[in-house]
Amino acid sequence: MKKSDIEYLNSKLNNQLKQDYFLNKNSWFGIGGKSAYFFSPNNKKDLKFFLKNFNLKKFVTIGSGSNILFRDRGFDGVVIKLGKDFSKIEEINSKIIAGAASLKLKVAEFAQKRGFSNFEFLSVIPGTLGGGVFMNAGCFGNEMSDLIKEIFVMDLAGEEISIDRKDINFTYRESSLNEKYIITDIVFKETEKIDPDLIKNKIDLLKKQKRINQPSNIKTGGSTFKNPIKHNEKAWQLIKKFGCDKLFFGNAKFSQHHCNFIDNTGLASSDEIEKLIKETQNIVLAKSGIKLELEIKII
What we know:
Elements: H1 3-12, E1 17-22, E2 34-39, H2 44-53, E3 59-62, E4 68-69, E5 75-81, E6 89-92, E7 95-99, H3 104-114, H4 129-134, E8 138-139, E9 142-143, E10 148-154, E11 160-164, E12 170-171, E13 174-175, E14 182-188, H5 196-213, H6 235-241, E15 248-249, E16 252-254, E17 262-263, H7 270-288, E18 297-298
Parallel strand pairs: 2-5, 3-5, 4-18
Antiparallel strand pairs: 1-2, 6-7, 7-14, 8-9, 10-11, 10-14, 12-13, 15-16, 16-17
């Protein structure tokens, strides 16, 4: 795109479009090269204008970067990160409606204060709602798909579309949503209202369980691999069983607390982390016939 075109877009978009933008601060791993473009629209109007005026061929939408590994060589497309107006959370007609950039924890806290049940598990899943919907995030026997009534998206032409829950096929850590859609809002089902103190107790218990079972205060992308479907053993059990928990490449290693989490406190290169991932997949496949699929996203 010509310099004059970028200048025109930024004159209309409050300089929200950046070029050659370092991505390391937008990933919990703390590493990553540059993206050709980085766009963070504050509202739907800005997003719509951008989509209608930028020839978007290669892009990715991110949230807080809790499950993303950016390669050191960078990304030759557009990284879109929704801004402040996309993190609003409201109660309308006894339903919670939240922007796609809302943190799952904030949605759980909003629900707790108003007595909405069944949102407790969101308090211990990092990241924003949009990514959580796309990958059907979940824990402790609950998934995003359990709560969704309807979502709103914007297509690459800048047109807004509503999609009913029944028209989305959700499976374990996956959905049938077109990745060319940008999720903007989520409407949640109306759930039973109960004593907010009971909900807080459930949230506190889940947070305690998470502290016991998962590492904290490390640079990580969360669960590296999905748990294999139709197998009794979880990903971490297979990693440990075949000695992969002791593998390391440079500064890339698994957490001693939970070996399905990569500990990047030593700031390994993205290549080192990918080598650790691939070697683990190869060993587990060779010894068990099980292919470990990635839960983190590599860009």
